[in-house]
Amino acid sequence: MRKLVAIIFVALIVGLPSARTQDDSIKLSDDGTPTTVKGHVNPLSSKDYRLNVPANQRIAIHLISTSTKKLVKFNLRRNKYTGKPLPGADAVTDWEGTLKEGGDYWIGVFALPAAGEENFTLVISATSEKKSDDGAASTEPNLDRARIPGTSAIPQSFVPRGWKIDARAEGLLTVMAVHASDCALLTTRY
Questions:
Q1: 10, 67, 71, 78: which one has the fewest Cβ atoms less than 10 Å from its Cβ?
Q2: Do 107 and 67 contact (CB within 8 A), yes or no?
Q3: pLDDT per residue over 7-18, tens digit each?
Q4: CA distance 164 to 30
Q5: Which is more confidently placed, 68 or 134?
Q6: Contact indicator for 60, 124 with CB cutoff of 8 Å
Q7: 161 falls within a domain
Q8: Taking Cα atoms as reference points, which of 57, 66, 72 lies closest to residue 26?
Q9: Residue 1, exposed/middle/buried by CB under 10 A (0-12, 13-18, 19+)?
Q10: 3-class DSSP state for residue 77?
Q11: 29 lies in which domain range?
Q12: Confidence band (pLDDT; 50, 70, 90) for 81?
């Protein structure tokens, strides 16, 4: 009887390839530009992405969805099936940290029960470890600071190639300038 059950189970697995899911892989760009992935979820359907990183890779993950109530979240875990989410990376829309161990990590995007059919965009940014003059590792974004102007009439000039402005703020800008002998308050309109 056990053999018969085992044979039926194997036959179902082999015979129903549509029941097996194939996960998408996310490849980080070599030039430091953020990697963008678009997808679709609902409360009954989630999406898993495999992310392969070297040891000590610093990454930032940002999730944008069509849900106005932020009913689409993600988690980041080391093991796809049995792993708990990394600290601070459970049911979030933003996460940043250093992945100490190299290898595969899993990003699971899911919709909360009150959500409907939701489209989402996942943005993954990686920074590199660079050695300073004293030999210590420092984390800096992969962008050429020399290509960013010091002054400009338009905000878009300060945005590195491949990046976009996520939000804008207008109004009164207050700057506090501190000197050893006094404190001055500067106000300007932008």
A1: 10
A2: no
A3: 665 454 544 433
A4: 18
A5: 68
A6: yes
A7: no
A8: 57
A9: exposed
A10: strand
A11: 21-139
A12: confident
Amino acid at 36: T
User: Which residues 6+ apart lie within 8 Å of 79 measured at CB?
Assistant: 106
* 118 bridge partner residues: 41
pTM of the complete model: 0.58
Round to whole Å and give the CA distance between 96 and 65.
18
- Give every CB contact of residue 70 below 8 A, 6+ residues apart in sequence: 93
In a domain, 165, yes or no: no
Q: Six-digit token pair at 21?
A: 């899911």
Encoding tokens for residue 52? 């392969």
User: What CATH code is carried by the domain that includes residue 60?
Assistant: 2.60.120.380
The answer to whether residue 7 sits within a structural domain is no
Structure tokens at 30: 């070599």
- Provide the sign of the torsion angle of the four alpha carbons 76, 82, 83, 88, taken in this order: positive
Contact at 8 Å (CB) between 75 and 85? yes
Q: Alpha-carbon distance 10 to 102, whole Å?
A: 34
Contact 82, 72 (CB under 8 A): no
d(CA 94, CA 72): 11
User: In the numeric block, which tokens belong to residue 25?
Assistant: 């892989």
The structure tokens 């207008």 sit at 170
Residue matched to tokens 């700057």: 175
How would residue 168 be classed by pLDDT, with cut points 50, 70 and 90? Answer: confident
The answer to whether 33 and 2 have CB atoms below 8 angstroms apart is no
